[in-house]
Protein backbone atom coordinates (compact mmCIF):
# COMPACT_ATOMS: atom_id res chain seq x y z
CA UNK A 1 0.00 0.00 0.00
CA UNK A 2 1.32 3.45 -0.96
CA UNK A 3 1.47 6.16 1.67
CA UNK A 4 -0.69 9.05 0.32
CA UNK A 5 1.06 11.71 2.43
CA UNK A 6 4.41 10.88 0.79
CA UNK A 7 2.83 11.16 -2.66
CA UNK A 8 1.29 14.53 -1.74
CA UNK A 9 4.62 15.88 -0.49
CA UNK A 10 6.34 14.64 -3.66
CA UNK A 11 3.76 16.36 -5.91
CA UNK A 12 3.97 19.65 -3.98
CA UNK A 13 7.78 19.52 -4.22
CA UNK A 14 7.59 18.85 -7.94
CA UNK A 15 5.27 21.82 -8.44
CA UNK A 16 7.63 24.12 -6.52
CA UNK A 17 10.64 22.96 -8.53
CA UNK A 18 8.82 23.45 -11.83
CA UNK A 19 7.90 27.02 -10.83
CA UNK A 20 11.55 27.90 -10.20
CA UNK A 21 12.70 26.21 -13.41
CA UNK A 22 11.03 29.00 -15.37
CA UNK A 23 12.98 31.64 -13.46
CA UNK A 24 16.38 30.16 -14.28
CA UNK A 25 15.56 29.17 -17.87
CA UNK A 26 14.11 32.56 -18.77
CA UNK A 27 16.07 32.78 -22.04
CA UNK A 28 17.77 29.42 -22.62
CA UNK A 29 18.95 30.23 -26.13
CA UNK A 30 20.09 33.76 -25.33
CA UNK A 31 21.22 36.28 -27.90
CA UNK A 32 24.67 37.65 -28.61
CA UNK A 33 25.20 41.38 -28.16
CA UNK A 34 28.41 42.93 -29.48
CA UNK A 35 30.35 45.94 -28.16
CA UNK A 36 33.23 47.65 -29.94
CA UNK A 37 35.04 50.97 -29.76
CA UNK A 38 33.71 51.74 -33.27
CA UNK A 39 30.11 50.88 -32.34
CA UNK A 40 27.09 53.13 -31.88
CA UNK A 41 24.87 52.71 -28.84
CA UNK A 42 21.68 53.13 -30.87
CA UNK A 43 22.63 50.03 -32.92
CA UNK A 44 20.99 46.73 -31.98
CA UNK A 45 24.38 45.08 -31.26
CA UNK A 46 23.29 41.73 -32.70
CA UNK A 47 26.26 41.49 -35.09
CA UNK A 48 29.84 42.80 -34.95
CA UNK A 49 28.91 45.20 -37.77
CA UNK A 50 26.03 46.67 -35.73
CA UNK A 51 27.84 46.70 -32.38
CA UNK A 52 27.11 49.03 -29.52
CA UNK A 53 29.83 51.38 -28.26
CA UNK A 54 29.41 50.96 -24.50
CA UNK A 55 29.05 47.91 -22.27
CA UNK A 56 26.34 49.75 -20.31
CA UNK A 57 24.18 50.09 -23.42
CA UNK A 58 24.65 46.40 -24.23
CA UNK A 59 23.82 45.42 -20.65
CA UNK A 60 20.71 47.57 -20.66
CA UNK A 61 19.39 45.76 -23.76
CA UNK A 62 20.44 42.30 -22.51
CA UNK A 63 18.09 39.70 -21.08
CA UNK A 64 18.98 36.82 -18.75
CA UNK A 65 20.84 34.18 -20.74
CA UNK A 66 22.37 36.66 -23.22
CA UNK A 67 26.10 36.97 -23.93
CA UNK A 68 27.82 40.34 -24.34
CA UNK A 69 30.92 40.09 -26.55
CA UNK A 70 33.35 42.91 -25.77
CA UNK A 71 35.75 43.92 -28.53
CA UNK A 72 39.37 45.02 -27.99
CA UNK A 73 39.97 48.24 -26.09
CA UNK A 74 39.68 49.81 -22.67
CA UNK A 75 36.23 50.32 -21.25
CA UNK A 76 35.69 52.23 -18.02
CA UNK A 77 32.32 51.41 -16.59
CA UNK A 78 30.38 51.74 -13.37
CA UNK A 79 27.73 49.05 -13.55
CA UNK A 80 25.81 46.97 -11.05
CA UNK A 81 25.23 43.50 -12.43
CA UNK A 82 21.87 42.03 -11.47
CA UNK A 83 21.07 40.01 -14.60
CA UNK A 84 22.26 36.48 -15.32
CA UNK A 85 24.36 37.25 -18.41
CA UNK A 86 27.77 36.25 -19.76
CA UNK A 87 30.37 38.95 -20.38
CA UNK A 88 33.01 37.69 -22.80
CA UNK A 89 36.16 39.28 -24.19
CA UNK A 90 37.15 37.95 -27.60
CA UNK A 91 40.68 36.54 -27.19
CA UNK A 92 41.50 39.06 -24.51
CA UNK A 93 41.53 39.52 -20.78
CA UNK A 94 38.52 41.06 -19.10
CA UNK A 95 39.41 42.73 -15.84
CA UNK A 96 36.48 43.30 -13.51
CA UNK A 97 37.24 45.29 -10.37
CA UNK A 98 35.13 46.47 -7.49
- Catalogue the unreliable spans: 3-26
Q: What is the gyration radius calculated from CA atoms?
A: 20 Å
Query: Helical amount among residues, as a percent range?
Result: 25-40%
Cross-sheet strand order for the largest sheet: 1-2-3
Helical run tally: 2
How much of the sequence is in beta strands?
A: 5-15%
Distance between the termini: 59 Å
Assign the structural class, choosing from mainly alpha, mainly beta, alpha/beta, alpha+beta, or little secondary structure: alpha/beta
What gross morphology would you assign? globular
Question: Overall pLDDT, averaged?
Answer: 75
Largest sheet: 3 strands, parallel
Q: What is the element string, with H for helices and E for strands?
A: HEHEE
Q: How many DSSP E strands?
A: 3
Distinctive features:
3 strands, alpha/beta, 2 helices, 29% helix, single chain, three-stranded parallel beta sheet, disordered N terminus, 98 residues
